[in-house]
Structures are given as structure tokens and as C-alpha cells.
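cache lookup: miss for this entity combination. No prior model stored, computing from scratch. Input as submitted by user K.M.:
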Amino acid sequence: MSQLTIDDAIAAFVACEPGDEAARRRLRERCWVLVSNKQLDAQARTALADAVAVLDEPARFKGELEAAAMEEVRRHLEIAVDRVECGASAMSEPEPTAAPAAAPVAAAAPAEAPATLTIPADADRALIEDFLAEAREYLETAEAALLQLESNPGDAEAINDVFRAFHTIKGTSSFLGLEAVAGFAHHAEDMLDRVRGAELAFAGVVPDLALRAVDVLKVLIAAVPAALAGGAPALPAEYAALGLALSNPEQHGAAAAAVRPEVAAIEEAPSVPIIGRTAEHVVPGAPSAGAAAHAAPTADPLVKVRTDKLDRLVEMVGELVIAEAILMQDAVVRDAANHGLAQKVRHADKIVRELQDLSLGLRMVPLKGAITKLQRVVRDLAARSGKQIAFEVSGEETEVDRTLVDLLADPLLHMVRNAVDHGIEPPSERLKAGKPAMGTVRLEAMQAGDRVLVKLHDDGRGLQREKILRKAIEKGIIQSGDTMSDAEVFELIWAPGFSTAEAVTEVSGRGVGMDVVRRNLTAMRGRTVIASTPGQGSTFTIELPLTLAITDGMLVRVGAERFIVPTARIQRCFRPEPSAVHTVQGRGEMVHTGGEVLPLFRLHRALRVVGAQEAITDGILMVVGDGDRRVAILVDELLGQQQVVAKPLGEAVGRVRGLTGGAILGDGRVGLILDVDELVEAHRSRGTGAETAEAAA
Amino acid sequence: MTAPASPSARSLAGKYLTFVLAGEEYAFEILSVHEIIGILAVTPVPHSHPAIRGVINLRGKVIPIVDLRIRFGMPASDAPETSIVVLNVKGLLVGIAVDAVSEVRMMSDAEIEPPPAFGTDVDASCLLGVAKGDGKVRMLLDAERVLSLEAIRSAL
């Protein structure tokens, strides 16, 4: 690539005819490229930046004003040319643009450094992508710390931050086979290590070198995706020279001509970016003088936003959706006479829906983050227990609410651990059972309606009923398991005290028991289902809502009160025949429906609402729950479906069993959202005896 | 009991919002008052504490309403409540239904006396002091104590 010289800028200037906007743009572009050429004399660059600033004000080039403006540009260019020439003669270098000190360095560089960024063929793409995100964060931290150090050079914590960034990037990139990144980070780390050890003062050229190292690493990191896609992006121009400078800053400082101007550029810098910013046509994210212009085109397209702000935004959009729904239902809008108004409201409705989709999408992240780490866990655990296990993953791109990804990490770890430790048999045992020696653990994630399913399947021996029962009795969780169904026995592994926290700590470093994991999942409206076939393996399923922000709810009336039942939990609703209800001795009221018998659950009793329907034929029954935990819930009336934003009831109210929160209803009042499963559970644990006693009272 | 001593250590003079509850005048420091709204329909929360009357919608936020009568163990009354005083206690918003909001009044140190140990309906630990002036007695409430969850639970 031939490099632009100041002569090119002069040529472009000469080519500028009055009124020729395109030519002016070309001139501006060339000046701008030169401004970012760090090999140029600092004052020359400042002068060029001044020229750019003038060129960036279109108002100054209108009609007769143009001549004066061009004259000013010319003056700046003249200064630049003078500076370049005198700098060149001082260095006794004939070529003004040849980097004075960088040239010999560059000549020495190729021996040590690669010329392009390459990625080994067997690289783990997922891990590299994770690394990229991590590296960007580290670099940002490092940059912030460096800037802080400029005002407070003694800040040991900040120096540590910078060191840690370089150190981590070096370690991880080396592990991932990104030699070009690792090599460079290594030099930077070395220098910071010396600063840390008080061997090198954080002064003179050092802060600048460190900042430039951050810039180069940013460029390298930004180039990795291109390399992943099969390309071989060139390394940044500064790569080799800066690497050498970092590994030997003193010597570099001695060759002052190369580095001092850079420092000067930083110190004088305010004039450059400030002018740049007042002109609105400057490259977006105009680099600070310390950050070379090459950082601008590759600037990170991500914006960091505080999660609470994001959550608030999503919440407010949720409110907007509801407010808008209320508006849509307003009699004035629905009145056929107001055709024009209805049309406008419908238009607004479309926009609101789109906004809703967008805002919900903001919080959605792929499950990948939670899943990738498991690969390593399976590998390590398998190696330790002498098992052969293939770990298959599908659907890792499934997106869920951000908070749910964090929440999934622990349960997944438990499940994987359980599958590897207890599920998959040792190779000899597998061969004896006629299975391949290599066991398979398969993790599948998928979206099903407004829920996300994560299934972990292993082809091992399956859950052993007897073993679980023995352990549960041993731990005093149950007395005897004779009457328990398989499903009930499997549920025991979630019981408090069944899995010990120590077992978890070993892998995750966090002592969280299965019961806590389960509780966390339930709090987020998640569920777990275990299926197992002896000798063939077991499947653990975690089911989670796609998003926590908005719930589709059925508004029901009980007496004078209204409640919201999440629609996803309702299987069907029906008005019962009087003959369908029976009282079964010891089991309370039961309802016959569609060939099955379900327990009857009177919502108003559980919620202590007065004035509700007692006669079930006057009310509606809703079938909720799953499997053998299904019940028919009696409510007075179904008022219709509504999307609601679930909100906490607040600390003062505390956690009330059977309620997940409140939501603003169409009339502005608060409706309570029912957690049907928990309600039924609470009702069951209180016992049907109490229910009948209450009924008799 | 040393608790009442600590509030008296600082000057209690300042602006207070006064209101009527069961025929008595009470006041909260104006700084702890977030806003005053007209009475709204309250949604009762089953199985919650008796002193929690329920929750309301404050412009999209769900906030609890504390029943001061029950909190202080006063008898129920027929006097219609007209307003809700929303208090901000350590960043948490809590509403209190009151019979009527009276005024914002400047109270001077001279007017304020330490809370009497007995003789009031109100648990003395919830009182900052008693202000006398204008021919009236106003009880200055400590919003934090009144709405502290532990205190509510132990009061009943």
C-alpha cells in the first residue's frame, strides 16, 4: 500500500476549483488520513487537523466566502509542509513521509512478527467469539484506567487493571492460537509488569505506548472476525514497531524523535479533537489524539448500556403497549363515526407493536453463553471418571431474556454433572449392556411458543429409583417410598438436602444446592421435568418463559376482585354440569371432565375473597397444571385476555405464596398475577381436610 | 429506652406535612413525602400483613398502601379517607391513606417537645416529637419507623 504524503494533499488542494465540492472532499479526506499518520511531525498533523476543521464547515465555502476559506486551508497546509520538511531535514531523512525511527524498526520486525492475522484451522470458533467480547471489555477497562492514570500516575489499582487486561488477553489468545494477538499483548504485558514492579516510571513515553497498545489490540480484536471468515487481515501498521517499543521503552525513549512527537501530539491534542468535534462532518467517533485514526473505522459497533436503564426502557414500552391497548378499546375510538381517528390509532398501534418487539429483543441473548462452558465441564468430568462421552449441542442460538441465561447456568451445570457422574456408565459396563463404549450427552435448546425448552438427554443407565429412595431415606427426606410414583421419586433429587452443596462447589466454585436452583427457576416461572427409562437414559427438561417482561394473561373475576392467570398455564376452560362434581372421601371435591377426574379448587377460598360464586354451575372451571398435578380452578367469570407487565409488589408486601406480582389493568387498577402452580401446591400442603372443614364452616 | 433520645439529639425544626387521621393531627417531615394523590381503589393482597391494605398503581408503579389505623392499633372508623400520602423511605415508595391532608407547616424548635412516653394512640417509638402551636397538638411521625417492616410485624 503506497502511503499518502503531504504532497498528495498539496496536489488535491491545487485541484480544487471554486465550487468543486467533490475536489474539496478529496482534499479533506487526504488531510484527514495524514492527520492520523503518526509518523508525521506532530505540529504538521495539528496544522492538517486545522485544515480539516476549516474544510468541515460547508458554510464557509458558500459563494464569495470560499476564496477566504481556501486561503486559510492553504495557510494550514503550508505550515504542515514546513514542519514535515524541517522535521525531515533534522532527521536527515530525504523522504518526508518515511517514518523516521520506525523505518529501521520495521525492517527488523518481519523476522519476529507475522504479517497477517491468521487463525489455526482447528480453532474453537465459539470460544474465540466469547474471547472477543471479553477482550473488548478488558480493553475498555484498560483504556479508562490509562486515562485515569494520566491525572493520577500513582494509582496502583489502575495500573493493575491495565496489566490484567493485557495479561488476560495474552493468556486467552495464546490458548486459542491467535498468535499475532498473543505476541503483541505479551509485549504490552511485559511493559506494564515493569511499571507494576516500579522498575519503569509511568511517565514520558510509557503512557502513550500503553494507550497505543490498547488501540492496536482493539484493531487486532476487530480483525479477528474477518480472519474467522477465512480472510487474512493485515496487521495494523504500528504492530511491529510498537511491539518493539513496548518491549524496550527506554531505548525507544532514547530514540526520542520517534516517540516524543507522539507525546507532544497528546499534550497539544486538545486543539485537534475539539476543532474536529465542533465540525459536525468529522468521522463518527473522532478519535482522541491518543487513539490513532485507524481506530475510527473499526470502532466497536456495540454500545454499552446499564442494564437497569434497559430494563426500565423495556418496562416503559410494556406500559405503552398496555396504555395503547386501553386507547384502542375506548368507545370513542371504536365508534364507527370516527373513522379517521380509528385509522390514526391503528397506525400508532402498528408502531407500538414494532417498538415492543424491538425492545423485547434488546434483552434477548443467545443461550450460547450458558452452554459453551459446559463443554469443558463434560470433558473434565469424563476424563476424571474414566468415561468416554460425546457432548452434542443443538439450538444454542435460541434467544432468551438476559436474566434467564444467568439463571440457567446453575441448573445446567447440575444436570450435566448428574448426567456424566451418574447417568453415563463406564465403557466396560456400556459394552456389556450392548451399547457403544462412547456415551452421548445431548443438550437441546428450542423455542416452543412463548416458552424456551432446554433438554439434557443422556443415553446412560437412567435414574435409579432404588438408589434415589435409599439416599432420600438416609437423609431423612422421606420415610418410605413404597407408594411413590416414579415421577415423584425423581422429584426427590430437587429436595433440599438431597444434593449437597459440596458436590456443586467442586465444579462451579459456587455452593448452590439443587433446591436453591429449583427455587430460582420457579421464581422465574420456570419448570423442570424429569423423564427416565432404565437402561436407556434420562432426559431433564427445563422450561422457561421467553421473556419476563410481558405475560399473556387471562383476566378472571372472583367476587369483586380480578386476578390474572398466565394464559400459558391454562389448558382449557369449561362450564361444568351439576352432575360433574363429586365429593370423594378424604380427597375433597372432584370434577369429572373429558373422561378424567380432577380435584376442584375454589379460588375464592384460597384467596379469601368474599361474595364469590359458591355454586360451580354458575362459575367457570379452568384446568391448569400438568400431569397428575392438574386441577380445575373455579372462578366467577372470564373477563378476557390481556397482555400485562408483571411488577413486583414491593418489599413492604413481601413475598406472598401464590402471587407472582401485580400488573396495571385497563382501568388503572392493580390486578394480581396468580402463580397457579404455587397456589395449588400451597393448597395441597394445607391438606384437603382443612378445605372440607372450611367448606363446612 | 434510648431510641427516642436519638431523634431529639438533632433539631426537628423544619417543614412538615400535616394530616388528619381519626380526628387527630399528625405530621411527616416534608422531605420524606414523595407526593399526595387523591384516594384510589386499592387492590387487596390476599395473605399479606393486615396492616398492608393492598396495592395501588402509581403511574405504572405498584406501591403498597399501609393502613395507619391498623398499624397503630386504632379502631376502624367511618370517616371517609380522601387522600393518599406517598412517602419515600430509603428509596421505597409506600402510600398511606389519610382522612384529610391539612397543610405544610413550618415547625420551630420552640414548638416541638419530646414525645410523651404514654397517653397517645401511637407507639412512642414512631414519634419524633409533639408540636404544639396554633392551639393544636400535632404528632410528628418518624416515617422510617412507622413503615419499618420489622416494626409493623412486631406491632401486631
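stored under new cache key. Residues 5-155 of chain B form a domain with the OB fold (Dihydrolipoamide Acetyltransferase, E2P) fold (CATH 2.40.50.180).
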